[in-house]
Amino acid sequence: MTSAHAIEQRRSLMTQIPGPRSKELHDRRTHAVSSGLTVGLPVYIERAEGAILVDVDGNHLIDLGAGIAVTSVGHAVDEVVAAVSDQVARFAHTCFMVTPYDAYVEVCETLNRLTPGDHDKRSALFNSGAEAVENAVKIARRATGRQAVVVVEHAYHGRTNLTMALTAKNMPYKDRFGPFAPEVYRVPTSYPFRDGLDGPAAAARAIAAIETSVGAANVAALLIEPIQGEGGFVVPADGFLPALSAWCTDSGALLVADEIQTGFCRTGSWFACDHESVVPDLVATAKGIAAGLPLAGVTGRTELMDAVHEGGLGGTYGGNPVACAAALAAIGVMERDDLSAKARAIESFVRPRLEALQRACPRIGDVRGRGAMLAIEFVVPGTTTPDPAAVKAVVASCHAEGVVVITCGTYGNVVRLLPSLTIAEPLLDDGLSVLESAVRALD
Ligand SMILES: Cc1ncc(COP(=O)(O)O)c(C=O)c1O
Question: How far apart are CA 87 and CA 81, in angstroms?
Fold first, then answer.
């Protein structure tokens, strides 16, 4: 069982944020680390437990970002710490392609069992979300003998060369990093707040764009986040995903779900596709799978996953034993403690508060999301014109008060909440109160 927390689950500030030791470290960073890496909040973390980050100045901050939807079971969970420690003491690496080990096989069995659909499946493991997406595209192309990959507006799939091409937003992800990979086509998506379309109408628009600009017979994969992450926590209108899924079935294209941010209980079910009983042909997973250790997977129909020639998939570290041990422990906690139910409980607690805030603040255009993946989109009052300045002000106030929140959205005008699914309610309450005050303080 998870023991009582050694770090008290309470926000407390000893210094201004950032404190003097963080500032020193930040100065060192400036002289050592490429300025190409951004920093959300320059406090340097010494320890973390549950949903509390302790920085080098002794400040206890509430973590409402979970390292971008990664530490869903919480920081330093006993089960994960024990499994990782045991594994690293036994062996840290052999390379699964050289001499295999059982934890890799067990993670694949687990992914095959938990991902949508009860058909026969196989999995392969990688290091990062982008790598999983790249491999899903390789598999889709090899299995279909087709080349085109269709993605949607506002999509985010990573920062490698192929995934930059798949990602929609230019700045900061793509600007002057081209040339990008060919055979990638972008079509409209469903963004109810901005397009006002119902799901079937938005799907018809996307399908018409595919058929006219790509040609159904050329499409290897339609790759989509069932709820968009970096793009702004955009939940498509009901019926959008099922209609795209049906079109894929009819046209021989593979539906590839990027569940990297939405997977592993985050949205109140194992995977976001589950909410509309959509069964993708391939699923890419990462982030929440391994409680902070780098691990990613591609899971899909056996005939697709096995269409690849032997040696066509792999990598030195993919499915590293320590990361696999972390994943098995984290997933064990999710199953035992029903963290999907916890995500739904978080939504029940947070959403009414955000909706009340929206009623009080005309700068909030939309409150949306699912489970413990919730967001507020800021606009110029009475319009849908994005207001990224409001987001900057809100985030700065939260940070100053010791609450770590992060942003997203094509227009940089969305505050997103991604707490660990195990966060204690008083902590969530405190974090929300800080956010509410920050929003109410906007002019
Ligand atoms: C939906 C989605 N796909 C892919 C990625 C890329 O994952 P990684 O940063 O592990 O490469 C992310 C990361 O934020 C993501 O949210």
Answer: 10
Q: Does the pLDDT at position 430 exceed 90?
A: yes
Residue-wise DSSP of 380-431: STTS--B-HHHHHHHHHHHHHTTEE-EEE-TTS-EEEE---TT--HHHHHHH
Against a cut of 0.85, is the pTM above it?
Answer: yes
**Which residues are registered as beta bridge partners of 244?**
none
Whether 157 lines ligand 1, by a CB cut-off of 6 Å, is: yes
- For residues 363 and 1, the model is more confident at 363
Q: Give the β-pairing of 296-301 and 364-370.
A: unpaired
Give the number of C-alpha atoms closer than 13 A to the C-alpha of residue 113, restricted to the C-beta side: 8
The verdict on the CB of residue 230 being under 6 Å from ligand 1 is yes
For residue 287, how far is its CA from the centre of ligand 1 (angstroms)?
Answer: 8
Q: Is 227 in the pocket of ligand 1 (CB under 6 A)?
A: no
431 lines ligand 1 (CB under 6 A): no
- Is any ligand 1 atom within 6 A of the Cβ of residue 130? yes
- Cβ–ligand 1 distance for 323 under 6 Å, the answer no
Q: Is the pLDDT of residue 67 over 60?
A: yes
Residue 130 CA, ligand 1 centroid: distance in Å: 6
* Residues 265, 259: Cα–Cα separation, whole Å: 11
pLDDT for 1 equals 38
- Torsion, Cα 116 340 336 52, to 10 degrees, reads 130
Query: What tokens were used for 293?
Result: 């250790």
State the Cα–Cα distance between residues 420 and 399, nearest whole angstrom.
18
- For residue 229, the ligand 1 atom closest to its alpha carbon is 16
